[in-house]
Amino acid sequence: MFSLTVVDHIMIAHSFRGEAFGPAQRLHGATFVVEAEFCAPKLDDLHLLIDIGLAKDVLRAVLAPIDYRNLDAEPVFAGKNTTTEYLCLHIQQELASACRDGRLGDGGKAVTGIKVLLRESHIAWAAFEGPV
Ligand SMILES: Nc1nc2c(c(=O)[nH]1)N=C([C@H](O)[C@H](O)COP(=O)(O)OP(=O)(O)OP(=O)(O)O)CN2
């Protein structure tokens, strides 16, 4: 299996429901480094999985509606705790959709799996890996 990873970052604000979150029940900010790993069993005629520039552009387009936002106020996250894990799932699903509808070119059509990893600090990160 081949993989190609591109990296970006987002700055967000959010709060959590649930006593387990302690002070994080209050509105707070976070900067996440976002790694998107695209996996495919084969390369194209140019020996590419996906063009890196295209992968970066599509990741940016998926992150733009989240970046510099208070996620508590975004309808797409209504009723959700936007934990690091949940944001991985959300971004993975958006990237999988981009692969399916051709936004990542022919290379994207060959992608079978995507792993999204979010680093919230130097001591904690989470990931979600799923099919396209
Ligand atoms: N599994 C997860 N746990 C926590 C997440 C998360 O996204 N997934 N997020 C947070 C907070 O948003 C923040 O990142 C840390 O808040 P904090 O209150 O400092 O939580 P800690 O568990 O790191 O520290 P303690 O104060 O010792 O509880 C929290 N958890």
Automatic annotation (TrEMBL):
Q: Which domain of life is it from?
A: Bacteria
Q: Which GO terms describe its molecular function?
A: 6-carboxytetrahydropterin synthase activity; metal ion binding
- Report the pathway entry: Purine metabolism; 7-cyano-7-deazaguanine biosynthesis
Gene3D superfamilies named among the record's database cross-references: 6-pyruvoyl tetrahydropterin synthase/QueD
Enzyme Commission number(s) of this protein: 4.1.2.50
What keywords were assigned to this record? Lyase, Metal-binding, Zinc
Q: Which reaction does it catalyse?
A: 7,8-dihydroneopterin 3'-triphosphate + H2O = 6-carboxy-5,6,7,8-tetrahydropterin + triphosphate + acetaldehyde + 2 H(+)
Q: Which InterPro entries match?
A: 6-PTP_synth/QueD, 6-PTP_synth/QueD_sf
Which Pfam family would be a valid example here? PTPS
Q: What does this protein do?
A: Catalyzes the conversion of 7,8-dihydroneopterin triphosphate (H2NTP) to 6-carboxy-5,6,7,8-tetrahydropterin (CPH4) and acetaldehyde.
Q: Name the PANTHER family on file.
A: 6-PYRUVOYL TETRAHYDROBIOPTERIN SYNTHASE, PYRUVOYL TETRAHYDROBIOPTERIN SYNTHASE
The entry's family comment says:
Belongs to the PTPS family. QueD subfamily.
Q: What is this protein called?
A: 6-carboxy-5,6,7,8-tetrahydropterin synthase
* Organismal lineage: Bacteria, Pseudomonadati, Pseudomonadota, Alphaproteobacteria, Acetobacterales
